[in-house]
Amino acid sequence: MSCCTERRRDVGLLLLRLGTGGVLAAHGAQKLFGWFGGHGLEGTGQYMESVGYSPGQASATAAGLAETGGGALLALGLATPAAGAAAAGAMVGAAAVHAPAGFFAQSGGYEYAAFLALTATGLAVTGPGRLSLDHALGHTANRDWMVPVALGVTAAVTSVVVGLRYRRVRESGEGDAVQEALFEEEGYGEVMGFEE
Asked: How far apart are CA 194 and CA 39, in angstroms?
């Protein structure tokens, strides 16, 4: 690979990391701190509980930490496999809530969450490039073996959490109709960070 091509790749990865990481960190800050028009832990916790993620406050904290921490670390290019996996797990959880509305975001679908999950996963697999803290620190927190471990653990935990949520929604007897009604109420899409 030529020197010019490597530089272009590194700049491209930096831009992708900064954009994706910044968006994820901002959404997490909405949940954790109520910043950027978010509802903080209390409001987000109530919403999480209403869509089957229980206990709501713990779910809001976990999602907020995964998004804020994973996003910030992705932007910095630090512990990239773990950061990308954590962010992707949070987005898969969000996509599960939006799935009944179909794919496209304008109808409340999971398009945006899926895109962020795939981008975060791609960064975890590809690595941060040379313009990153991982590179500056000799890749001590970005080893090849960390990629499958981080993604595997995240996939297992996310499967359990989303599976339990699905079961709660089904057992509530209200199912998707109630969930869809929640999206029509003002502000709930903003809590999850998916209103346009």
From this structure: 13
The per-residue DSSP string of 2-56 comes to: -HHHHHHHHHHHHHHHHHHHHHHHHHHHHHHH-GGG--HHHHHHHHHHHTT-SSH
Question: CA 17, 21, 27 angle in degrees (round to 5)?
Answer: 160
Q: Which residues contact 66 (CB under 8 A, 6 or more apart)?
A: 28, 86, 87, 89, 90
Question: Is the Cβ–Cβ distance between 68 and 48 less than 8 Å?
Answer: no
Give the separation between CA 99 and CA 96, rounded to whole angstroms.
5
Asked if the peptide bond before residue 55 counts as cis, ω within 30 degrees of 0, the response is yes
The whole-angstrom separation of Cα 47 and Cα 167 is 17
Report residue 155's pLDDT band, with 50, 70 and 90 as the boundaries: very high
Predicted confidence (pLDDT) at residue 191 exceeds the cutoff of 50: no
C-alpha 136, offset from chain centre: 26
Three-state secondary-structure class, residue 68: helix
Q: Write down how long the chain is.
A: 196
Query: For residue 16, what are its two tokens?
Result: 């992708």
Say how many Å lie between the first and final Cα of the chain, rounded.
40
